[in-house]
Amino acid sequence: MKNMARILRIGKAALKAWQFRLVAVLGLLALMWACYPVTDATYSNPQDSGTGQWLIEFRTGEEKVHIEMRYERKSEKGNHSNSHGFSIDPGRFSGLTREQAMSGGAHVQFQLKRDAGTFNFEGWFRDGNGSGHFTFAPDRSFAAQISSQGYGSPTDEQLLSLAMSDTGFALINELRVQGYERPTLDQLVAMGNHGVSVDYVQGLKSYGYQVKTIDSLVKMRDHGVSLKFISEMASLGYKNLEAEELVRIRDHGVTPEFINEMVAAGYPQLSVDEWVTLRDHGVDTKYIKELDALGYSRLPVEQLRQMRDHGVNPKFIQELKQSGYDKVPVEQLIRLRDHGVSASYIQKMKERGHTNLSLDELINLRDRGSRE
Question: Does this model's pTM top 0.70?
């Protein structure tokens, strides 16, 4: 009984100590909450139409920073998670300094103003890495202005998209000055989402391109026809290509790097169609160098295409050579491959006493059903 009473006393003492610690922790949390600044950025303003999370990384020696913004879009099919990332001059942020970002730990509140609205950020930075939440406040005056210009009334979701991509008056005015058709609101959003910026439109003009239609602009950007790509192609002698040609060669993987490699392998000044043909049929510098080592140098593009299509590879040619058939013409190589005459088949025929056969004789034997 004495032991039981002793155990109960110890238990009561432990319970009181735990209760004291719990009260202390709750008190500390209450104090922190009371001291935490409650601002418009802390809670969504009634005028805010979007919320989400942000991540920013400052890197030493780099002028721009990368920001990633994640948010949800509502639709008839439910909510969908979205993200939008871009590089930006940190000077565009109002209320955020590099010192804050690179500190050992700092609570931050800052803004990013765009024509279509303002992003209000709140969060934490440490050693150049920051994260937190943002709210978006649409700019109603911007909405009213573009509505008065005949674009219609943008929804809050459209304003959010336009602000994300920094699509606003500058692009609208540039399109008008260059004589482009007036885009719809949906087209403006699409242009922003696909990276059709003022710099892109002005850059196209400097290279002699005025695509005219908004859909063509979006298509070019969507298919990877960047200003850098156009410049590099021009430096290789491919200037003033049609917009559709640029899209086509980009879609087929004809890059400046591919062209430079092929030129070094002995194929300069090919037409766009020839480059597309080579790329589509898997003719690369590795294939060309292997053929060259076997004595098939600088073959015409059409022969390269046919050989690749019919499965005439360096291994097939090498095995024929080892079987006694060297320097076989390209047309015959293709015939042999098409009719199933391989090195192993030739060896079988030799074992059956068929030696010193011509290529035509081998093909005839194979066609008549002399099986391996």
Answer: yes
